[in-house]
Amino acid sequence: MPTSIPVDPHHRTAAEGAGPDRAAEITVTDPRTVRRAVKAAALGNAMEWFDFGVYSYLAVTLGKVFFPSGDPTAQLLSTFGAFAAAFLVRPVGGMVFGPLGDRVGRQKVLAITMIMMAAGTFAIGLIPSYASIGVWAPALLFLARLVQGFSTGGEYGGASTFIAEYSPDRRRGFFGSFLEFGTLAGYIGGAGLVTLMTALLSADDLLSWGWRVPFLIAGPMGLIGLYLRLRLEETPAFAQLEKEARADQAARKKKAGLKDMVVGQWRAMLLCVALVLVFNVTDYMLLSYMPTYLTEQLEYDATHGLLVVLGVMALMMCAQLFMGRLTDRVGRRPVIAAGCAGFLLLSAPALLLIRQGSLPAVALGMGALGLLLVCFTASMPSALPALFPTRVRYGSLSIGFNISVSLFGGTTPLVVTALIGATGDLMMPAYYMMAAAVVGGVAVFFMTESARRPLPGSPPSVSTQEEARDLRASYGSPDACGRMGA
User: Fold this and answer.
1) What is the pLDDT of residues 289-325, one digit of tens each?
2) Between β-strands 25-28 and 3-6, what pairing exists: parallel, antiparallel or unpaired?
3) Which phi and psi angles does 103 have, rounded to 5°?
């Protein structure tokens, strides 16, 4: 379990509010607890993207199951319409679960979102077909997607906050990178399972019952994730905040409201929206839109396009944890800035390679964009929570993240398709990523470096008693050894 060691109250730390009137504490983390926290948080993200991969790869089959027979294009559009519905309620979920996480605790809310995500996905596997219950089938599918989207609104902000507040300051980038590692693993797992089932089952078997299997797997996955999350106690940072609130009656009565989380954090909120914009535009462009671009615009074989994307994600997984360690060494800002510069300079050359159409050229272009994307997937889970103080971190991050994802990330395929249709320019995906990179670059310029520093509003966090002793000694207190029991 994490322990806390008193720090000289006259030393002003990076924590918000530290000073003569607030005795900060050094948190010494327990490695086993940190690892359990990372697993519990990352599994929720993995389950979200497992569903994403399953739904995307089964889109044609789901269209036949849930919507009236007729035009295949209309069926596919209806299926993706139900999929997009989840993005509409994500900001609402963020506004509900985020502030709740700052009021009652991260662990409790993350347990709720895990249950809801698993239940929504599992329910899809149980819905009868349109042929059995008519219009109720798409209505129930739409409802299940709304449940998924609502719960997802509180998942990323909570999971990244949970990992950030459990991690020692010097390794927050490395542990945070596991969150997006889970994303990649979940998507590959979902898409890979559907690909395997498509190869093993006949078209009739897949249509009659096979499509249900991947969704039903979400039930056991959710129970495992819930078990892991319920085993954990509250994060040390939130526990410290609650301890101070109990000691201060006025602070206990005045919890941060929605206005405090948005208007009171307007500068950090703008930075969050801009950083998530470049992160998600490039993410959805590469992993969601490019297979469609290869098939529809370049008339590339659909199967090969999907396999290339899975290969790119496997490549990203190999680089993810290494890049997370790098952010702890050189800082978040240089890594994010390198990603923005890379997308600004290399998006057009990479897309020209992809447009050549040969498998080596497509793989090289997609691989280059994937490695640039790792600059964001490895750094954002630790950079975004550091924008906000502990008392509003879950709420502010969830609101800013989901607003940006809904407005910019989830709309990327639609906007780029419309731009290509309006202009006829097949280079639009590159231009769109370049524009996002400019926005991200401006945000990096204004953000503060957070690597190897305490989270705002939280005491320093270290891995060992020795690190705590060194840090305590650096404060220059004459009774350091006595307080630490040395």
Assistant:
1) 888 788 777 887 767 777 888 899 999 999 999 999 9
2) antiparallel
3) -95, -50
